[in-house]
Write a structure and sequence with these properties.
The protein is of the alpha/beta class. Helices cover about 35% and strands about 15% of the residues. The protein contains 27 helices and 20 strands.
Amino acid sequence: MTTAAQSPRAVTVRAADYLAGELARAGVTHMFGVGGANIEDLYDAVHRGGTVRGVVAKHEFSAVTMADGYARTTGRLGVVAATSGGGAMNLVPGLAEAYASRVPLLALVGQPPTVQEGRGAFQDTSGKGDSFDAGEVFTPLSRFCAKVADADALVELLPRAIEAAQAEPRGPAVLLLPKDVQQALLPWPGHEPAATASSASADSTTSSASTTSTASRASAGPAMSTALMAPTASTASTGSTASSVPTASTTPLDPAALAAASDILRGADTVLVIAGEGVAAADARAELAALARGLGAWVAVTPDAKDVFDNRDPRFAGVAGVMGHANVEDCLRRADVCLLVGTRLPLLARGGLEDALATADVVCLDAETPFVAATALGGDLRDALRAVTGRLGSAPRACPPHAGPLPAPLPVPGPDSPDTDTDTEAETDTDADADAGASTIPFPRALAAVEAALPEDAHVFVDAGNTGASAVHLLPAPRHGRFVVALGMGGMGYTFGAGIGAALATGRRTYVLAGDGAFFMHGAEVHTAVEHSAPVTFVVFNNNAHAMCVLREEFLQGGVRDDDLFRRTDIAAGMAAAFPSLDVTGAENATQLREALLRANTGVGPAFVALDCDPREVPPFLPFQPFTEAPGSAGRVRRAQQADNRAEPADNRAEPADNRAEQADNKETSDERRVVHVG
């Protein structure tokens, strides 16, 4: 095999230029990140190359989620770049999400020059001189992690990293890039160097570093590829511009497992399919629908895969698990077989279904072993779906009648927080509630307004907490767009970066639905959307609280704390002041919300809508169900957001200790109420 170093036609370029060019050749269109001294050469190379677009985020976590959203909506490899030290460490939670959710990413992490390792270098993470080893931090969060010890090693390690990220199970790959290695020269056959003086020489401080060592700390991964392969074109129902099928060869289907799974399904009169995110990752929606028709099956989806089956199809049974619909359990109890497709059925997807699953005959089509006992068929998911469908009868079967995804009945907020879809504020039972502010819009009404405005080809990114649980339960997925919920790590604030990455990658209107808690964590990325005119509509449901924590404290811990209730903030006013060019609306009712969303749909850049919600509104979340079913529970979470109280003496606003003790004594434990524990 002729290598770049052996080719007589090779031109000499910086390793950073080679890396930028190979990313472009692999089909990468955007690189997300935050700059710094030890990654600036790569940013320079990307800029000079002109093919990959560099997007600078406000925080490295959001840069990872931008790459994550990019990957989930296009099927291409997402790329993030960050400098050493704190910048590198800020990548960790985002990479953890991508690892847990099987999202193919490549993280390019700058490091101090090799000559300075172990000698007190700023942000040294070489593992030398009593510094910690960055490789040991990233290896557990990645499918492949290596430090690039010299420029020649990059030629070997880059294709290995990309292949590992895209092979099953997908996930992040990490390359640690010392600054002097980025600046070092290497031959690159058939390419012209970028027009830069620095491509002919390295920085004087780092040019003396040795370039003869081999790559170190490369975790086990696939054999080296001889070329970086761009993904193939796709005409997926989501409109993806590339297929998410990995470049690595897929494992052939096991004939015995295929026969066993097919025989079970052929013998079943009624089948419930529970489809997961793997269907989206494999671009297997059409194959899933064909199998459902052949089986005459009901189809449910996991909370993170609401878009893999048409939510308006008569076969659609609803969402499975703790944010889901009761109809799914009813269908499961009626079914002869439960078929898992593209999911291992983790706890959030099976919560409340364990008893029914224990007596069901379960078949699983997925590349990984399921979390429940099942007859499993691994290998490529599209191949598995086609093979099983091919063994069924040719005629589609009718779907048995079922109730459909009816919303769960939930108590409305108490009388001090009425359903006010008017412009007038209602009188409240405390002065503090008046200070707490504007009219609130219940989640069902707000999400109905979102549904009315949502384009069929839009992408939707749903954040954590009460907003997430309500949206997963109540909002149908767009027919031709993604509906993404990051349940790998469930980190708050994920959607702000992810939505921007998706919008920049696809050019489609992208909705970000998040609570105020998520906004205050990573909502500053709105700045990035404004800078790049990304078509993102940010919808912030502001209950001035970490409301899911408030409800957990009330229901599970006696309600003696109010740490997670905050003074009222006018987020819309703040955003309007910060970004004069941004279309900002503070919606006081559902009509205003819908009108603002429809207006944003016709725009070319970002828009921002904030609305007030009640922190005492109970979302459709299974762990809270035993408490909402109790007599008189509708007004239980009455620890009002009393902004005035922050200024009062502690003894004036505290409940008497004996009252709290009596309340705690009367509280049934979560075990007595059979609460589903999910965190």
